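BUG: 3D viewer hangs when loading the predicted structure for this chain

Environment: internal workstation, default settings.
Expected: structure renders.
Actual: progress bar stalls at 90%.

Input used:
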Amino acid sequence: MSADTPPPLYAPQEPIFPRRVQGFFRTFKWWIMAVTLGIYYLTPWIRWDRGPNLPDQAVLVDLAGRRFYFFWIEIWPHEFYFVAGLLIMAGLGLFLFTSALGRVWCGYTCPQTVWTDLFILVERWIEGDRNARVRLWNAKWDAKKWRLRLTKWAVWFVIAVATGGAWVFYFTDAPQLARDLLSFQAHPVAYMTIAILTATTFLFGGFMREQVCIYMCPWPRIQGAMMDDATLTVAYRDWRGEPRGKKHEGTTGDCIDCMACVNVCPMGIDIRDGQQMECITCALCIDACDDVMTKIGKPRGLIDYLALADEPRERAGAAPRPIWKHVLRPRTILYTILWSLVGFGLLFALFIRSDIDLTVEAVRNPTFVTLSDGSIRNVYTLRLRNKHGEPRDFRVSLSSEEILRINLEADRRNLITVDPDSTTQQRVYVTARPQDPAARLDRTELRFWVEDIESGERAYRNSVFNGKVSP
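Structure tokens produced before the viewer hung:
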């Protein structure tokens, strides 16, 4: 390349072969992987009895019925504010944990991290640890390399198919869908969704691992606004480790430049270079460094969770501030308060919501009708939702300061029968006789009442009766 030739815009991807490591954080990540994958794969198969007329899947996003079921909780379309509230809580929780402990979401529970860990585990199981995988990467394509690669890709593909298949089970009855999929009777959308998720899981977890985190995910670029010098994050104590060198060289620093922290990093970075956008704070470098420090008789914690604000104290030989002082500070307390307020608000709304949902709309074309005897009639559209698992009868009535009569289009007893877990619509007629004041007033306030005959629960909606104003 000549001196006048600009450097390439995109550098080729350097393969990364993380070495196996043991320690507290690696074990902790294994447990998180087992729990999160267990929840993801098994949740659609959990049954929950809601009665004979409702689905018995514990967690179900019923798009056809426009309903979301979560164990004993049922969310209707008009209650989407519950979902919005949960998303707000998730965002505030992400801000809280990032400001307190750095990118713990990325390092431990992000789906990309979890599935990449699983794919690397399979890779290590089939091809060997770091050195064996490096040799295989550099080897020619012979029968052994093809056998190992095809075996690895086959296991990856099975995991990817299971991942895509588990996702579609959340949107319909899982056992029935499984039978339909195996008998090739499922809807084409199910096969398309599984195919897309299989391909993305296979590519992202197997071939684009750190590239997804660096180039596709926006969070590394946002996290800077969430962190400050009091945030606990994975870092290297350079004031203790430098100058680095081999132990026999008689250096004063504790770092022996063994590269263990680099070899275990799934992002392929050197944590000793300082905080970097690529670091997902998986803390595997802490386990690797602690193991080396133990072997050479040095104190553990050369790489550790620490706050940059403690650097002057530690350089002077003082102990860092207690962890709770880093976690409990105005910023994190504010996030905790906001998160709690949203959570308590959702719980309050959940417990006070009624099993009767009622809407009333006045028919305005025409505003009123004059009957043959001179009475004035207004027409209203009443929509009534029954959230119970069995049919219920509801009585409709009204209250007003003026004398008004009510009757339903389909029932003279003013009763409405609503099927279980469904909505019905009914025309309601409200009439004022010619001698009643409401017939001659422009507007008369009134209130529609609906009473559950079985439980006695009541709900109401306010409206207006329009009369014929005398000239």
